[in-house]
């Protein structure tokens, strides 16, 4: 039976790969993102698109209204929106402390607030039972990201998801996170990774290769399946063994 699947950040990278996986099953997919043209160019068969800044409550409210009108119920909610805050426009100032404040604010807005606002806006529309909520965390949530801000913004999703799992569990809804490691063919780095850095990242894996958007999408797709119905409040790492255990 076809499901209604909402994917933020669905126009590129992991979100796009996930959208194609669900669409291939015949599911009805809604792609969300800030850039309408990118969503349209994604060309996911049968997909609806809606351009919005999910870091703005008023725009998320409009997304929720659209979801209600077009889909009604949300069977699967995938949070793929977010990214490297360092790629966003700077605050234009020369105050070092102000730059730190800007960096942390941007990262939490991109990676944490977008997911929280969208979840809260549509939580009453999640299919009960059988609904699935899936967050994109990161290997950085375990080992840091250099500046701290990006890693912290992803790690902040963990307790939120765990609380949500307890709240929604009685409705038959599961909530999980997927934490990718180094994944190629995304816009996360803003361009090609310097070869020495790429070799270092690949060398950390046990599989000897970088991850792909399809690797992560396949895990999201499985967590959304009936087979994963008793898995909730978990972080599934997809990093080729670069980070072990936890």
TrEMBL record:
Pfam families: adh_short_C2. This is 3-oxoacyl-ACP reductase. Residues 3-205 form the Ketoreductase domain. PANTHER family: 3-OXOACYL-[ACYL-CARRIER-PROTEIN] REDUCTASE, CHLOROPLASTIC, SHORT-CHAIN DEHYDROGENASES/REDUCTASES FAMILY MEMBER. InterPro entries: KR_dom, NAD(P)-bd_dom_sf, Sc_DH/Rdtase_CS, SDR_fam. GO terms for biological process: fatty acid elongation. Belongs to the short-chain dehydrogenases/reductases (SDR) family. PROSITE patterns: ADH_SHORT. SMART domains: PKS_KR (SM00822). GO terms for molecular function: oxidoreductase activity, acting on the CH-OH group of donors, NAD or NADP as acceptor. It comes from Streptomyces fructofermentans.
């Amino acid at each position: 039976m076809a499901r209604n699947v909402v994917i933020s950040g669905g126009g590129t990278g992991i979100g796009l790969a996930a959208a194609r996986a669900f669409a291939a099953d015949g599911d009805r997919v809604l792609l969300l993102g800030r850039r309408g043209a990118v969503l349209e160019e994604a060309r996911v068969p049968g997909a609806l698109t809606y351009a919005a800044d999910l870091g703005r409550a008023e725009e998320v409210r409009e997304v929720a209204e659209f979801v209600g009108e077009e889909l009604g119920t949300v069977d699967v909610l995938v949070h793929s929106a977010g990214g490297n805050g360092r790629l966003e426009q700077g605050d234009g100032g020369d105050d070092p402390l102000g730059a730190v404040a800007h960096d942390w604010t941007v990262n939490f807005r991109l990676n944490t607030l977008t997911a929280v606002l969208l979840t809260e806006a549509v939580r009453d529309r999640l299919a009960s039972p059988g609904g699935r909520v899936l967050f994109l965390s990161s290997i950085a949530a375990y080992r840091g990201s250099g500046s701290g801000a990006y890693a912290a913004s992803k790690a902040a999703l963990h307790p939120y998801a765990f609380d949500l799992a307890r709240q929604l569990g009685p409705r038959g809804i599961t909530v999980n996170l997927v934490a990718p490691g180094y994944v190629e063919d995304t816009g996360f780095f803003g361009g090609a990774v310097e070869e020495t850095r790429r070799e270092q990242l690949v060398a950390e894996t046990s599989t000897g290769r970088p991850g792909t958007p399809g690797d992560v999408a396949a895990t999201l797709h499985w967590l959304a399946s009936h087979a994963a119905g008793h898995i909730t409040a978990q972080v599934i790492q997809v990093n080729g063994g670069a980070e072990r255990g936890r």
